[in-house]
Inverse folding.
């Protein structure tokens, strides 16, 4: 079993177990994701490559777990972003790029699981805002990065997915005005 599959299974198991015990998907996602991401990038030479792979697999595990337990996808994606940011903080890799990679991974996995793109995208933005505040990053830039990356990824899935994401992230979320950077504008 390769390391990425192990990451996915670890997060999935952690979230399912925590959710069955407490029922709070968002908190379960934060805890399982931050722990797994921190472990995955610990001691790795190429943090950027490790982080992108770890984020994708951790996201996949989290969304599969939420689907299995019938949890709130928006709460889970919020927890995923916060968890990834906390997990990457120690390695100095908690950046806006991290938020963007996480948002793209969430939307791709949501497509694979036939999930609600709007709920996933709104949760991403909420998580980016909360995580940014916690780490001293600019919440408005974090929101814009998450929303724009989600829109870019949804656009690759299809026009309907793109429209659902756009509708979900347009306006003010968690007290922050979200500014979309259109994927087709350079």
């Amino acid at each position: 079993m390769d390391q990425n599959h192990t990451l996915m299974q670890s997060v999935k198991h952690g979230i399912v177990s925590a959710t069955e015990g407490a029922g709070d998907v968002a908190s379960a996602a934060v805890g399982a994701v931050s722990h797994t991401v921190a472990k995955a990038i610990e001691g790795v030479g190429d943090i950027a490559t490790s982080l992108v792979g770890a984020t994708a697999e951790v996201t996949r595990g989290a969304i599969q777990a939420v689907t299995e337990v019938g949890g709130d996808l928006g709460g889970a994606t919020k927890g995923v972003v916060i968890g990834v940011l906390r997990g990457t903080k120690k390695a100095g890799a908690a950046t806006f790029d991290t938020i963007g990679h996480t948002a793209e991974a969430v939307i791709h996995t949501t497509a694979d699981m036939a999930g609600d793109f709007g709920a996933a995208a709104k949760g991403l933005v909420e998580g980016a805002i909360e995580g940014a505040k916690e780490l001293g990053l600019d919440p408005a830039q974090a929101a814009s990065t998450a929303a724009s990356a989600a829109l870019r990824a949804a656009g690759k899935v299809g026009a309907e997915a793109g429209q659902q994401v756009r509708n979900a992230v347009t306006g003010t979320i968690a007290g922050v005005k979200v500014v979309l950077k259109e994927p087709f504008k350079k």
Remarks:
- The chain has one domain: 3-178.
- The chain has a mean pLDDT of 81.
- Strands lie at 171-173, 176-178.
